[in-house]
Prior knowledge:
By secondary structure, this protein is α/β, with parallel strands linked by helices. A hairpin with a 2-residue loop joins strand 1 (19-22) and strand 2. It is globular. It is 57% helix and 10% strand. The protein has one domain. It has a five-stranded mixed beta sheet, sandwiched between helices.
Amino acid sequence: MNSRSERTAADPRLGEAHIERVGGVVLVGVLHDHPASVYRVRSVVEGVDPDAVALELPPLAVPLAVRQAADERTPPTLGGEMSAAVQAADTDRVVGIDGPSAGFLRYLAAELYAERASADTVRKVAAGLRSVTARAVKRRAAAAVMALTSVQLAVDPPTTYDTGRTDDPARQAEEERRRADTARSMLRTFAAPPAAAVRRAARERYMADRLAALGGTDEVVAVVGLAHLDAVAGHLRDA
Length: 239
């Protein structure tokens, strides 16, 4: 094992709780924009050298992550772990596996039907879908502007944390763990509103099925939120 591999193996940011392999798919759980997650994504992508990189982004938003990854700085200034994954990969095959998309709408409709959702829940799901679609379109427009100019657009302000990428790895890992534990505790304590639960379930099933299709013959590294990691991995095993 070379010195780089030894450092990687000992790094607390690469804990097994954040990385799952299911067949040809390596799932990397992240806390969006967290420096420990950015490091983890870069390390896994470089180590696996995948045929494709799959991102928890709608297809419309992928071009923005690709543009942000073209930053001469490592990791990129904008785009967090998503652009970091693209920058670290040798492949040009970058796929958005989240909704909104035509395929995702079928999963959302199926989940609403399975839950016998009320009219109020359907309205709230539709309102949420309009919101995320508008955000995806905004990201696609920003990518188009960046393709024509040298301007770097900060479409989504990055989340700030109590630690940065130059801090000690152990401090980064501990702060990430604390934040993830707090989020999990809140999810266990407070039941999600029906509309949010329906959308989350549809997203996780859709992402798993997209990954099952991608990982049939190729090596894929998938970047997903830590909150979705276990569910997506479970659905992927079932698929």
